Amino acid sequence: MIYFCHIPRTSGSAIISSIAKSFSDILKIGDYETGMQIHNDQKKLRSYLSEVKKFDCIGDHFAAMPYSYIENIDGFSLIRNPIERLISCFNYFGPWDGSNSFIEFIRYQGSHPIKDSMGFNGRPNMQCANLVNTILWEGKEAYLENANVSFFDILKIIKKQRITLSTYENRNYMIKDLNFSLNKIKQTNIILNTELKVRPKQYLYDENFYLIPNEIIEEVKVFNALDYQLYNYVKDHETRMGRCLTPNDIII
């Protein structure tokens, strides 16, 4: 089975739509969104996942990866520079919630389930959390601040769960490997095409740096230290090797 973990604001919607459009007549493709609504009820979740086993490919936002329940899964996901991802969140949500500035947006401390899932309201490193929650989630809230997790732990889990990673800007590396794996299931030769969805930028930045105070950028870096480490780790691999990071590339 193939699982695409859609981390919000990393262009995952375009990839999931392309999978559905290109492979729906060939593979059994499941939408994992329903599971997201029941992840706090373990009995319902196990029942749901027993049905998911019949699919060849599943993917969408989900609070915990399904590796604890389904064997032989190959995972794929995209990660993004944390500050760029937060700016994308602001561009997407800011007009809806009345935020007048990026600073106001990241300072948000109210009760808002969508923003909570994005990593606001005191929840850091949400990209790493999306990738490793299976190990941390049993009987706990699925957020990294509830566990003493190091970057080494993150890499061990990613390797164990066979997750292939690429950065947002080099997503064609991941799409190439994902396309190969999808075709391999039925020995087909379909080309998986995706077009990057570009929204008008509501928060302007120049060619050198974002027009955000340096102290805010540094705060974001500290708050999302694990996400930055993972992003830099994957980006360094892509620069050196010219391809995405596979589980076999992780030496631990």
Question: How would you characterize the overall build of this protein?
Answer:
With 252 residues, the protein is of the alpha/beta class. It contains eleven helices and five strands. Strands 2-3-1-4-5 form a five-stranded parallel sheet. The longest helix is centred in the last third of the chain and has 17 residues, at 225-241.
Notable characteristics:
alpha/beta; 252 residues; 47% helix; Rossmann fold; globular
Chain-wise SSE layout:
Elements: E1 2-5, H1 12-23, E2 29-31, H2 33-36, H3 42-52, E3 57-60, E4 74-79, H4 82-97, H5 102-106, H6 113-118, H7 126-137, H8 151-160, E5 163-167, H9 171-186, H10 214-223, H11 225-241
Parallel strand pairs: 1-3, 1-4, 2-3, 4-5
Short recap of the structure:
The protein is of the alpha/beta class. The protein is 47% helix and 9% strand.
The backbone outline, from C-alpha atoms, is globular
- The percent of residues in helical segments reads 40-55%
CATH superfamily: P-loop containing nucleotide triphosphate hydrolases
| Strand order within the widest beta sheet | 2-3-1-4-5
Low-confidence spans: 135-140, 203-210
Tally of DSSP helical segments: 11
Secondary structural class: alpha/beta
Total number of strands? 5
Strand content: 5-15%
Rounded average pLDDT: 79
The CATH architecture: 3-Layer(aba) Sandwich
Radius of gyration: 18 Å
- The top-level CATH class is Alpha Beta
**How widely separated are the two ends?**
25 Å
